[in-house]
Design a protein that fits this description.
The protein is 69% helix and 3% strand. By secondary structure, it is mainly alpha-helical. It has six helices and two strands, in the order αααββααα. It is elongated and about 55 Å long. The chain has a two-stranded antiparallel ribbon.
C-alpha cells in the first residue's frame, strides 16, 4: 500500500523532526568529545557550547511538542494493529526520554557547577560531593546513549516500513518530498 503524495506532515513538523534529530546526534558526538579537549579555555568553551546547544534543543523540543499537539498536521495511522499502537507509545516514549535527558543535563550543570563561556559561573550545588557530581554526569551520559539507541531503533523501523512494507510511512516525514508536495494544490491548503 502506498501513501498518496499529499499524505504527509506539514513543512514545520518535518523540519522540527529533523532539527531535533540533528541536534541530538550532534550533542551526543560533542558529549563524547568533551573529555578530549585540553583543560582550560578550550574545554570550558566546548562544554559551554554543548550546554548552549542543549538549551537550543530544549526550545526546539518544547516547540515541537506544542506544534504537534495544537497546530501541525495530524495523519491517521497506516493501520490499527498492535504494531501501530506500539509505535504511538514508542514515539511518546522518545519525547519523554528527550525531556528526561534535557533535565538531567541541566541537573548535571547545577550539581557539578560550571563556567559558561568564561562569562559567568554556575555555582556547584554541593562542591565537596565528587561522587554526586560523577553520578549526575554519568546518568546524563547513560540517558544520552539510551536515547541514541532508541532513535536508532526508530530509524530502523522507518527503513523497515520503507523497504519491507513499502507503505509510504517514511515519505510522510522526509524533507526532500517537501518540494514535490509543494507542487500539489492540496499542499497550499495546509
Amino acid at each position: 500500500m502506498n501513501t498518496p503524495l499529499n499524505a504527509a506532515y506539514d513543512r514545520r513538523t518535518v523540519w522540527l523532526h529533523w532539527w531535533v534529530a540533528f541536534l541530538i546526534v550532534g550533542l551526543w558526538i560533542a558529549g563524547q568529545c568533551i573529555n578530549w579537549m585540553p583543560r582550560g579555555t578550550p574545554k570550558i568553551m566546548f562544554r559551554s557550547a554543548h550546554i548552549a546547544v542543549g538549551v537550543v534543543l530544549a526550545l526546539f523540543w518544547l516547540y515541537r511538542i506544542y506544534w504537534r499537539a495544537f497546530r501541525g498536521v495530524k495523519l491517521p495511522t497506516l493501520d490499527l494493529s498492535r504494531l501501530s499502537r506500539f509505535s504511538r507509545v514508542y514515539h511518546q516514549g522518545l519525547y519523554v526520554l528527550i525531556g528526561i535527558l534535557l533535565l538531567s543535563g541541566l541537573a548535571a550543570v547545577w550539581i557539578r557547577g560550571d563556567n559558561l563561556f568564561e562569562l559567568f559561573i554556575v555555582p556547584a550545588w554541593d562542591p565537596g560531593n565528587k561522587e554526586l557530581r560523577r553520578s549526575a554526569v554519568q546518568l546524563h551520559e547513560w540517558l544520552a546513549n539510551g536515547l541514541l539507541a532508541a532513535a536508532g531503533l526508530h530509524m530502523l523501523a522507518a527503513l523497515w516500513h520503507h523497504w519491507k512494507r513499502q507503505d509510504g510511512l517514511l515519505h510522510r516525514m522526509w524533507p526532500t518530498r517537501l518540494s514535490q508536495r509543494a507542487m500539489s494544490p492540496s499542499f497550499h491548503d495546509q
